[in-house]
Amino acid sequence: MSTVMQGYGSRLVQQLHQGGIRDPRVLEVIGRIPRQLFVEGALGARAWENTALPIGAGQTISQPYIVARMTELLLDGLPTGPVLELGTGSGYQAAVLASLVPQLCTVERIKSLQILARRRLKQLDLHNIAFKYGDGWQGWPSKAPFAGILVTAAASDVPTALLQQLMDGGRLVIPVGEQEQVLRVIQRSGDRFTSQDVEAVRFVPLVQGATE
């Protein structure tokens, strides 16, 4: 990374730390992954701002604070095992997760976004990622159980399929709600699930079905 980009990364990390992000692993990864790689054209100049940006197809690249917060919540006490991401989008959240977990499985329902994300993640030399084109509501049963599941779009209700695909001790981080959304963390203990609502958020809706 160039000296200029290192400066941008350090500034963003400082903002995130001031905003309450404490996990040093998350801050280190956010500081070094080139976010400008995940946005198109003129928006690249705004890539290191702590703000969400459009990526096309009605989707956005999440605010770095939200990426860091969701990652931090997922990693807290996470057992060893594969992690599932629903909503690959630009690939930025996938890049952060793949830098911190042994294996990442990521599902995207919009083909054009998945193609771009695969290309970007290959550029970063991240090879512990399995990609699937399809419906995130169903998770990825053949790869389950998962130590953690992170959902990057808001569900009106928590999909039962995702709860079933968590391993014992596993964690699900998901935005829930329609007009008003909340970031929820659900942990599995045997057949019991405990949930905690963390903070208000704003995500695009989790939509069923794949699309070109």
Task: Describe this structure as you would to a colleague.
Helix content is 29%, strand content 27%. The mean pLDDT is 93. The strands form two sheets. The chain has a seven-stranded mixed sheet with strand order 5-4-3-6-7-8-9. Strand 3 (83-86), helix 4 and strand 4 form a beta-alpha-beta unit. The protein is of the alpha/beta class. The protein is globular and about 50 Å long.
Query: What is the number of strand segments?
Result: 9
Main structural class: alpha/beta
State the end-to-end CA separation: 34 Å
Supply Rg.
16 Å
Q: Globular, elongated, flat, extended or rod-shaped: what is the shape?
A: globular
Helix content: 25-40%
Oligomeric form of this entry? single chain
Task: List the total number of helices.
Answer: 6
- Calculate the mean pLDDT score and round it: 93
In spatial order, strands of the major sheet run 5-4-3-6-7-8-9
Main sheet?
7 strands, mixed
State which percent range the strand residues make up: 25-35%
Order of helices and strands: HHEEHEHEHEEHEEE
Low-pLDDT sequence parts: none
